[in-house]
Amino acid sequence: MNKQKIFTAFTLAEVLITLGIIGVVAALTMPALVAKYNEMVMVNKLKRTYSELANAIELRKAELGTSDYAEQFNPNLSAMEQLEGFTKYLNVIEKCSSSSNSKGCGGIYKIKPKKRTNDGFGNVSTGGNVSSDRVLLNDGTLVWFGKRNWSGDCQVTYTKYDKDENGNYTNVVDGKPVPEYYTAQHCAEIFFDIDGPNKGRNQYGYDCYSFAVKPTKLDQHSGYGGLYDTMRTEKLDYERYSAVKY
Prior knowledge:
Largest sheet: 6 strands, antiparallel
Order of helices and strands: HHEEEEEEEEEEEEH
Mean pLDDT: 88
Radius of gyration: 25 Å
Strand order of the largest sheet: 1-4-5-10-11-12
Helix content: 25-40%
Oligomer: single chain
Low-confidence stretches: none
Shape: globular
């Protein structure tokens, strides 16, 4: 007897249903995958940039023949002289001083705090402007410099302001907060934007970071991005927010 061959196949409806399910799953998972990839890219660039800066500072120390970092950040040197001392070991394509034309090196632009914070008067803090001596590297990274007029063993006097649990100033006279003073050991402070002034969010904790130079080590600023924590956890630490009433 002749046996008939039986062919099995998906119907058009089954194919469409399957494709629809695949599309829904992709739509749900792709944004998370893209965000994870972008985070990995930013963290890797942060690691590379910090390594290059730390190495440049170390090379400058070796050049001077000193046992610590203090001499290369001697307060008798100008901010640009101190910045040039270690950035000559980097691939600098543009150099701008704080007194030069603000159009250079990205001009003057604002860096947002990494978290939504009260400016002390009930508004969301919008951050500070970048107008310091700075250099632009060939990979687009912007490095700017915080000179510290220290004395003794890199001792610097800073101001702070007392705030309540909501972040509002508690001691205000004639509309201005009254400062309190404290000291910290900072020979200099280094700031950088890993994707440059014209890209990214220009926000601490995402693409902008800072570290302090102490006499014998480099130390992170948790309020300016917390770069060591970010490199250790490989997770960006920032918050999306708008500049409105706090």
